[in-house]
Amino acid sequence: MSPSAPELLEKAKHVGIETAARHANEVDVAARFPHEAVDALKKHRLLGAGVPPEFGGLGAGMEQLAAACETLGQYCASTAMIYAMHLIQVACIVRHRAASPFFARYLVEVAEKQTLIASVTSEATVGGELRTSVAGVEHKGDRLNINKNATTISYGVQADALLLTARRSPEAPANDQVLVLLQRTDYSLEAAGTWDTLGMRGTCSPGFRVVGDAPDEQILDASFADIASQTMVPFSHILWSSCWLGIATAALGRAHEFVRQQARAKPGTVPPAALRLAEATNLLQLMRTNVHDVAHECEALMQGQGGVDALSSIPFALKMNNLKISSSQLVVQIVHQALLICGIAAYKNDSRFALGRHLRDALSAALMVGNDRIYATNASMLLVLKDD
Amino acid sequence: MKDEIRIILHEHARLTQDARLLTDDADLYQVGMTSHASVNVMLALEGRFDIEFPDRMLRRGVFASISAISAAIGELVAASVHAVGA
């Protein structure tokens, strides 16, 4: 681990307790952006956590970033998810910028100005299929034009920049994609829809039409197929899972406190809910071990020799997909168990054991890239996997 | 072998161009082969050449072009001939 590791975790915890937790309910009720928490992340320079030190960032690796998301997730899942999504975009630039002088300068700017980057991968008519685009990049002289109808852009209005998938050109096949960076002055957004959802309400993720005009140098040279398999998908599944692990940890923490309170009221007897707590703790350990283990393995591959090959392999893709599926299911199970343990105290929104927000936030997990779609991909990959 | 690979690509890769007219080094992903289609190509190749791609070969690069596929099959066929001979 780099020397920045404890510092990053410490600061994430500080932001979580001092700011994110204080506004989490209000953010949830109003379905508004957690600007206090994001401002605090900026103030502590955490938006540059994934930027290499030579560009002014903290240079944190996968495990440290995952730990930061997990920590924030305990206090405000929307804040944690916004932070995770930003980190994913930064990782795509850091790992696939090649020798681009523009992107080297841009990373310095991200660390210096604490630029918040949003992702624009969704698109009308292709839904959540990451590896298919309708809109294509049009080239005019040394500039690019793009017009994309995105079905969801999380914190689209609040972001300082967008990282957007598109066909390499309007004539290119739907899966021959590139990633394009649009800075605040390069694009306009036309809102298409609202964001009044069950959970993750603070991520503010309605649809938008994005119209962009930017210099050509703002296209990442690498093919999006490589960026997706080697960086975007592993970072997404690990950092999302870390946010969900945070939610599960917080929910079970409340349940644990509730059981201790019951036990203190009647020393000498084990409260009946303690048995359910023991079961749920087992699930949480399973989830935590899986998230941490995959994060550790992924970081080792990303830093080691021959990692790129392994990262674009079917066994690795399968493991990433399995992590996403299992943690998205476990978080719901664990929060539900916590709700059963605390009973009415958790069902009431104004109780200190309230778990409504946790449960609603957790229910988004199976939908962020639908689990059924991921299962279908895994089923297809298993047809050729030998497990040799 | 490359002609047989072209036929399999023509039938299963769902390319935006006629696979039979592709050069050996053309990037198959850039002419529209999706991950899903590549699995079907792998299955058809395994069936046609009576081979099994080991997991270490289940990478994008191995199926990126006709040349790359041909090299991979050549390696597996040679290994199996060697194993039978021994």
Rounded average pLDDT of chain B: 91
For the largest interface, the chains and their residue counts are: A-B, 24 and 22 residues
| Span between termini of chain B | 25 Å
Largest sheet of chain A: 4 strands, antiparallel
Average pLDDT taken over every residue of chain A? 95
CATH architecture of the largest domain in chain A: Up-down Bundle
DSSP strand (E) fraction of chain A? 5-15%
Structural class of chain B: mainly alpha
State the helix count of chain B.
3
Number of domains of chain A: 3
Give me the CATH superfamily of the largest domain in chain A: Butyryl-CoA Dehydrogenase, subunit A, domain 3
By DSSP (H or I, 4+ residues per run), the number of helices of chain A equals 12
Outline the biggest β-sheet of chain B.
Answer: none
Give the beta-strand count of chain A: 7
What report would you give on this structure?
With 388 residues, chain A is of the alpha+beta class. Chain A has three domains: 4-115, Butyryl-Coa Dehydrogenase, subunit A, domain 1 (Orthogonal Bundle); 118-218, Butyryl-CoA Dehydrogenase, subunit A, domain 2, CATH 2.40.110; 224-382, Up-down Bundle (Butyryl-CoA Dehydrogenase, subunit A, domain 3), CATH 1.20.140.10. In chain A, 54% of the residues lie in helices and 11% in strands. Chain A has helices at 4-30, 35-43, 62-73, 77-96, 101-113, 224-265, 273-303, 307-311, 314-342, 344-347, 356-362, 371-382; strands spanning 117-120, 138-140, 143-150, 161-167, 177-183, 187-192, 207-215. In chain A, the strands form two sheets. Chain A has a four-stranded antiparallel β-sheet, with no helix packed on it. In chain A, a hairpin with a 2-residue loop joins strand 2 and strand 3. Chain B is built from three helices and no strands. Chain B is an all-alpha fold and 86 residues long. Chain B has one domain (2-85): ACP-like (Non-ribosomal Peptide Synthetase Peptidyl Carrier Protein, Chain A, Orthogonal Bundle).
